[in-house]
Amino acid sequence: ADMADPSADPVTLTPPSLSSHGSGFGGGGATTDTVSGSTGIGFGTAHGSGFGGGGADGTITDNVSSTAGTITREEMDERIRRLEERRASVARQSSRGSESMMRSPSPPPPPPSSPPPSGRESSAERDATLDIRYAYDGTLRSHRRRSGSIEASEHSAARREEAQQPTITIQPIRRDNDYLRQLTGNIAEDYQLYLKLRDEYSSSPTFYFDMADWFFKHNDRETALRILTSIAELELENASLYRLLGYRFKEYGEYALAKFVTKKVIQWRPLEPQSYRDHALALADNGETQAALDSLYSLLTRPFPVSNIRRSRGIDEVAVTEINRLIAKDASLNTSQIDERLIINIPVDIRVVINWNMDNTDIDLHVIDPNGEECYYGNRRTRIGGRISADNTSGYGPEQFLLKRAVRGKYRVYVNHFSAREFTAAGPATVMAEIFTRYAGQNEQRRVVSLQLSNIETGRRRSGGKVQVAEFEF
Question: So what's the pLDDT on residue 334?
């Protein structure tokens, strides 16, 4: 009945005003909201301003005075050494303390010109997710020079944009379910077989998911949607099932239906940041760009329980990326409510983002570049400038890969179902991947694919865990 009533009142998102408990680019962390005591997704360091420590909760005074007259160079050097030790100590305490506090949305100032450090990061550094400018601005150039890559000129970048677009190829996923082997490709016969099998598989979301996709790929959209929406009837107010529906509707281009089901998820899961992101993206796909922008920004400013923020690591970075895409694609948008420090020159050659419908699940994004280097949670920055967001191990995602300037060659996209701690009537986890080339540019391409992990278990065992979902070549 709900599916038949897309005219229901919209959910009103009222973002609170920004607070400023600290600044500094790439710090992560959290601060208690002094008004409500609740939690807001935040940016920068909770206790520091700028790079390298100090800040609002642990300021160190640099004044060195002496009442005993002139001090020697050795004494001055010793005082400076002690001062630096104190700074380092406060910075360490700030980093440890920020994990247990709640975040405050203090947007970052521009980053320094030097590139981020290479190598494996500490857990505190992984929590500092909002260093997305690394993937957008000139810091990438010095990183490329350090790795021996050749910096592309602005002229050659313009030529690449005008060149023939790479074709994004979605890789076929092998399905091992027995009922799929009985399908013939004859629409009338296959529909009768579906009706015959339905009683046996009536409680299985995977059955409807697979059958709907079969008819959709055989150009019977009406039957596909009729079968797919049966999933909504399996369990009342099941947010995981509705998220699954939202992914498929997006993949099929049914944006009005995606908007409807994502709004329902907000009503049932109003304390989960991912609910608002899913709905905002459905609004954008449906042509409601201003509403989408406002909804995405509200995700950054509204309070959420700290436990839900920890299960949504990196969603702030992803939301800022998507905010800037909307602004880049539509100059008429009203951005007066958005902190100008969040507005970035966004276009990138490659963007891949995944999220999934099951809580307490760890699904990982892997991208292999033409040089054979794999970008994933264990290697978050590549030599050609690729970068992946924070590893999200216990929520719904998202995880995002960005590359400002693509080098020539083939790129391959994989997902890996690392672990799951939840199994419900919604069945196995469903992951959705969005693959973009020329992201936020005039020649942007997007492909969407959703897959249920029960369908790829055999392939996972053969390939060591990763399942290829797409590839494209520059």
Answer: 97
pLDDT value at position 38? Answer: 36
DSSP 288: -
The answer to whether 63 and 37 are in contact (CB under 8 A) is: no
Cα(237)–Cα(239) distance, rounded to whole angstroms? 6
Q: How far apart are CA 40 and CA 108, in angstroms?
A: 15
Stretches where the chain sits below pLDDT 70 are 1-164, 173-176, 419-426, 454-464
Q: pLDDT digits over 291-339, tens only?
A: 999 999 999 999 999 888 888 888 999 999 999 999 999 999 999 999 9
Q: Residue 44 in contact with residue 22, Cβ under 8 Å?
A: yes
Taking CB atoms within 8 Å and a gap of at least 24, the contacts of 202-207 are 203/234, 203/425, 204/427, 205/231, 205/234, 205/241, 205/244, 205/425, 205/426, 205/427, 205/452, 206/177, 206/427, 206/428, 206/452, 206/454, 206/455, 207/177, 207/179
One DSSP character per residue, 73-107 reads HHHHHHHHHHHHHHHHHHHHHHHHHHTTS---B-P
Q: For residues 310 and 331, what is the distance between their CA atoms, to the nearest angstrom?
A: 34
Q: Which of 415, 428, 431 is nearest to 465 (CA)?
A: 415
Dist. CA 266–CA 270, nearest whole Å: 5
d(CA 328, CA 438): 12
Edge-first strand order for the sheet with 348-356 is: 387-388, 399-403, 348-356, 430-439, 445-452
Tokens, residue 169 = 């190829």
pTM: 0.67
Which of 365, 369, 355 lies closest to 397 in space, CA to CA? 355
Please report, for the chain, how many H helices and E strands are present, in that order. Answer: 15, 10
pLDDT digits (tens, 9 = 90+) for 254-263: 999 999 999 9
